Amino acid sequence: MSDFKDKKTNKNKSKSKILEFKTKSLKEQKIETNQDIWNKMDLYAKELVEAFDEKTNRENIDRDHCLYLFHYRLMQKMMFRMSYPAFKYYTKSVSRQLLEHHKEFMNSLDEWTSDDGQDDFGRRIEANKNKTLH
Using CA atoms, how far apart are residues 31 and 35, in angstroms rounded to an integer? Predict the structure, then answer.
C-alpha cells in the first residue's frame, strides 16, 4: 500500500509543476505609448467634467458657483502636487490655449458677425478686395 500512496503523491506533485502556456502572442498584445496614455487620460478628464456638469444641473445653486468650486479644488490639488515652476507653466499655458481656442470658436459662429464691417466685439472684418473706391 505504501507503493500505491507514493505513486499517487508523485502524480499530484507532477501535475502542480506544469505551467500553462500563454494564449496570447506578443503580436496581439498592444503596447501603450505615451500618446495612448495621454489620450486615455484626456478621455477620462472629459468624462469627469461631463459628469460634474450633469451634477451641476441637478443642484439648487448657481452653475457658475459649482464650476468655481470644481476649478478651485482642481487648482488647489495641482498646487500641492506639482512643483511651483510646473504649476506656473501649466496655468499660463492653459490660459493661453483657452484664449486662442475661444477666439477661433467665436469667429466660426455666424451670429457673432454683422454686415457693417465689424463683428460684435468691434473688430474690423477683412475688407472685400473686389470692391473699389472709384
Answer: 11
Residue 126 pLDDT grade (very low, low, confident, very high; cuts 50, 70, 90) = low
Nearest CA-CA partner of 120 in 102, 107, 134: 107
Instruction: Match 469667429 to its residue by C-alpha cell.
Output: 107
Q: Residues 56, 67: contact at Cβ < 8 Å?
A: yes
Taking only the tens place, the pLDDT of each residue in 65-107 is 888 999 999 999 999 999 999 999 999 999 999 888 887 777 7
**Residue 31 carries which DSSP code?**
P
13 to 1, 2, 4, 7, 22: CA distances (angstroms)? 19, 16, 14, 10, 22
Measure CA 5 to chain center. Answer: 62
DSSP bridge pairs for 113: 119
